[in-house]
Amino acid sequence: MKFVLTNFRYYLSFSQIQLIFKRLKNILDVSAKETKSHFGLLQYMTNRYFKQLLLAEIGEEGQKRLNGSSAVIAGCGGLGTVIANNLVRSGVGRVIIVDRDFIELDNLHRQILFDEDDIRKGLPKAVAAAEKLRRIDSDITIEPVVADLTAGNIEQIIKGADIVLDGTDNFETRFLINEACVKLGIPWIYAGVVATYGMVFSIIPGETPCLQCFIRELPGPDESPTCDTVGVLGTAVNIIASVEVTEGLKILMGRQDSLIRKLIYIDAWQGTWSAYEIKKDDKRCPVCDERQFAFLEKGK
Ligand SMILES: [Zn+2]
Asked: Taking a C-beta distance cutoff of 8 angstroms, is the pair 99, 126 a contact?
């Protein structure tokens, strides 16, 4: 015992030692099925995902599913960098980042994966993000795609992915993502943020309303404020993207029972959080009811 304790002192923090004792007690208490060897226990405690393994909401089964899943991030700006950071740190096994832009100085206040060096090197956002993320976890497969999502490439890029996460800043691309995801049966999460507020809604084809069920027409260019016209609060971006990833992790772990299934609206400045029921109305939706994919067809 003394030997074991001495070694633990070198490799583990005090809180981890406390947890080991708790865990050891559990091992003595629980059935043989759950019993781990002491060696296995040490591996478990020093695992990169230890704090997630402890969570009842994730655990070993959830972690295994995350490690075996793949996600596409559409856009690597404010939302996209926070999404990518969270997905990779959570252990999502394959992350595809799609963005055509290069990094500019006024991105740095909210786009958390970039720094001044990236600007000096003139790197595209997708490439700079991939380099940073590989330094965070070299076991994750990260695939940068330096391109806009278009009708011509979207199906090829998202095919086989388990989820698509919205990091875009325009409704034209969102309508395109919606059609491609409904067509291929891939869940996706709509998110948008501007000024101090934003929203998130999870779309599971065949289960929930799709984007076009509740936004019937493509909004005109001057119909809604944008970050370029009214600005955006960096913390609001972090909050919205984090809520988006939380919903995304539930989908990747097969925990759809825990999805909020409402349009989540958060104002970071006001400190308000609301959730609105989104229901399909009587009018048939051209995308998820009629399977007419106008945006996909238009660009071909
Ligand atoms: Zn629909």
From this structure: yes
Measured distance CA(202)–CA(184) in Å, rounded:
16
How is residue 213 written in tokens?
């069920």
Q: List, for residues 238-253, the tens digit of each pLDDT value.
A: 999 999 999 999 999 9
Instruction: Tell me, in angstroms, the distance from the centre of ligand 1 to residue 284's CA.
Output: 8
Distance from Cα 214 to the centre of ligand 1, integer Å: 8
The parts of the chain modelled with pLDDT lower than 50 are: 1-10, 28-36
**pLDDT at res. 92:** 98
Residues in Cβ contact with 84 at an 8 Å cutoff, skipping those fewer than 6 apart: 73, 76, 95, 97, 113, 129, 133
- Please write the tens of the pLDDT for every residue from 92-128: 999 999 999 999 999 999 999 999 999 999 999 999 9
**Nearest CA among 107, 100, 143, 106 for reference residue 125:** 100
Ligand 1: distance of its center to the CA of 206 in Å?
A: 9
Where are the chain's structural domains? 2-46, 64-298
Q: Mark residue 231 as left, alpha or beta (left: phi above 0; alpha: psi -120 to 50; beta: remaining).
A: left
Q: What architecture is domain 64-298?
A: 3-Layer(aba) Sandwich (3.40)
Please tell me the pTM assigned to this model. 0.86
Active site residues: 227
Ligand 1 centroid from CA 115, angstroms: 39
Calpha distance 275→243 (Å, rounded): 12
